[in-house]
């Protein structure tokens, strides 16, 4: 069962296809469990999916790490308390 119920809930509340087509820039941040490096997932790149959003809020020890491709991720605040610099750097007018 795992995180599938959470993914279904997120998908029922958010139209990820529409979000990924949108001109609005959406970015979520997660921490790679193995490397400790910050990773930004964005709708401007290959698109956002429910596991990316879940990973950005998976704060240990209460929530399990989320597997995305071949890596495991936890909440991005573990290494980046205020990821605003990324939003400012990638902002377009």
From TrEMBL:
It comes from the Bacteria. Residues 4-85 form the PNPLA domain. The keyword Lipid metabolism applies. Pfam families: Patatin. One of its GO terms (biological process) is lipid metabolic process. Gene3D superfamilies: Cytosolic phospholipase A2 catalytic domain. Keywords: Lipid metabolism. InterPro entries: Acyl_Trfase/lysoPLipase, PNPLA_dom. This is Patatin. It comes from Caballeronia calidae.
